[in-house]
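Q: acetate--CoA ligase (ADP-forming), please. Structure only.
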Amino acid sequence: MRFFFYPTSVAVFGSFKKGAIAYEILKNIVDGGFEGQIIPVNPKGGEIEVAGISFKVAKKLEKNVDVAIIAIPARFVPSLIEEIGDKIKGAVVISAGFSEIGNFALEKELVEKARKKGVKIIGPNCAGIFGVHANFFGSFEVRVKKGGLALISQSGAFGGAALAMGDEEGIGFSAFVSYGNAADLTESDFLEYFADDKNTKVIALYIEGVKDGKKFIKALRYATSKKPVIILKAGKSKSGSKAAQSHTGSLAGSYEIYKAAFQQFGAIEVEEMEELFDAAKVFEMYEKGGKKVAIITNSGGPGVLATDKVERLGLKIAKLTDNTINELREFLPPQCSLKNPIDLIADADYERYKRTIEVVCKDENVDALLVICVPPIFISSEEIAKAIIDAKCNKPIIVNFMAGELVREGIKVLEECGIKNFPTPERAAKALHWLNLRKDFNE
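A: Structure for acetate--CoA ligase (ADP-forming):
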């Protein structure tokens, strides 16, 4: 399936009027800097200009291409596949109007014609695909930065929202695939593919249900043996399960069965979109964590919130050694609390943060650090960000800078050095929880 995500040529089928789906996908491909051959196709022919580049619209596909992206009325899709099947390796069928509205016969015809031609199908009823490292944005969703997260989404709308949110959170993506009705290729195929993709470091999966449970279990076992797999499962409740079936025509099934499979193979199940990205962020930064956490803060309240969350998640507030406490006492003001969480008080500056991180990091009872900064107006967040970056520490440091304009520049400094911010103490604690659950991988 590599040709889907690293294509050298693509044909786009549909209307190329501004605002039409095919036009918007073509524009995204051009604007994204795709360097391969691009062929717009419409029986009316003509010429169009996209981003200052003129294209002749082919009346039919004459040349061989890797991928066809199809956004035409559903009833014409099977015959198009029959017509172009010898010239393409795979097709991304954006068109809706298949099994999701009860039109099973048309979907069956599409798959049968594709298989006769040896063509792989993504969709129908999907939002398209990205091969980010190939600068290929074959979708109408927002383009994203290069990175290591492959996002597999059963829902196109969820996928689009997740891409936008992930981009805001500073996540880099290797690929995105919205697979819609999964008439041919399914979540299982993509799990196995991304498990072996060298640019993918973490796999995130949004599913409502699967059609082939045995195939899914096999793919999940394989993928989780290679890389972290983060799963957001929708349709857990009775009503949610019914809604999932009506949305994509899939079998939602019993949530308990899914949950058992996730736990058995070490997939990380999350409850909400923001958790999916928090898990992805922490996996991008660190390969392993631990249960014993030290919390360093300049504000008592957030420190208490973090402490509560850490313990509720089954992690432990590390008991600092006497040596650590004595070393901290040598340079911290007497008003500071030396128990864990360590409260550096409001006027904590670069030196206080840096030295505290370095001392605590050496403590044999500490596996990971959670560093909180709520800067007063007289201390810049950049100063504290630099302290975290400069501190010599070989253990995971999870950072919570809050909030808004006060910390914007500090967060930017951290991100330039590959350190992601978690905007609340609770989310920072949860990131440590995901990291503790992460398996060791020997790729």
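A: Brief note, in case it's useful. Residues 244-252 have pLDDT under 50 and may be disordered.
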